[in-house]
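User: For my dataset I need records formatted as: sequence, then structure tokens, nothing else. Please produce one.
Assistant:
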Amino acid sequence: MAEPTNTPMPTAPPTPRSTSPAPAATRPASSTTLSPPKPIIPTSAPSSSSSSSWPVPGGPLGTKPVVLHIGDPVRYNPETYTEFTTLFDVVRPDIHERQRPAFIQALRERRWGDFSAVFRPFWGTGGEMGHWDAELVSLLPDSVRVFASAGTGFDWADTQLLGERGITYCNGGLAAAEAVSDFAIAMIISTFRVLPFCIASAASSPAAFRECHASATAQSHNLRGRTLGLVGLGNIGQQIALKCGAAFGMDAAYYDVDRKPAALEARLGVRYCDGLEALARQSDCVVLCTPAGAGRLVNAESLAWFRPGARLVNVARGSLVDEEALAEALEEGRLAGVALDVHADEPRIHPRLLAFAGTKAMLTCHNAGGTVETHIGFEELAMRNIMAVLTGGQAVTPVNLQWLKSKDVQ
């Protein structure tokens, strides 16, 4: 899931792909009453009585490691948070201290001491200091070992530099995959069934209603047998492939910088394409579900590879798309429709794309991952990542292991 407007997005440095595992299918809730979920993974963290065995130095508040908590308090997982605060001393700066100038000054003053982790459980808060670039990362104490954040996207932090400092960065993609994949399916359906046209016409006038009732059929198509092209086959892409294949009988193909194992391809019912061009040329609908570090994948050159009347769905990052080129393709009738949850200049929508909102374009407000269940998972996963790393275990959802340098324990 993409980050909110208080977190810088398109201008951040390129970041690598997440190495988080694909989640297993989850059971639907049996009621509308929400309760804290069971832990995503078990933890082997020592009890508070064994704090002297911690593989990281203690902080200024006592003998336990200190965690710097940026953003809102934990809301949904009180049992895990009780365990978390038993193991760590948690320090949470207020919103004024999180503004960039004040935050930088506090880091320079070592106000929070030799903390061992940065904890950001929500994507709507905790980003007030802006990009975690060289200026911020260089001010982190050497004791920091892990940065665990909500959100699927991580182009707001220089994960390479963090890794080179010996800090494992963990995202929340595992928690958001179900919500984003569900939303993506709604967007895929919208492009085949001209839902923007149907919805806008129903809300317009009786004449528009009658016109849509008469003309939408000739523009609408079933999904069965159509080729779905997935750009990226991580957690989200895998769930989209499973759901579209099982529910709608779509033929799924994918392109990824790392080809997945044959056993996984077989389980998902997907086939591999060795490049974006090969994927685009055979797809009826292309779905972007890859990190922003891939650059502008959809541009004038790549749009020329799309089949006439193809569709585009973007639930990844607005920076992946040249919106001028996309608008031109819609204006010229080369694309049948688009569905965009993310945009290059959020919260502003490109005016040429906005002109298609009631006809060929489903445009939403960066909503794909935004469910209560996702927030529950973000909290839980961030805490579990920190507990795993600070007890000498493996992170659950690391994204920068290829750059991670060992950090000597004092």
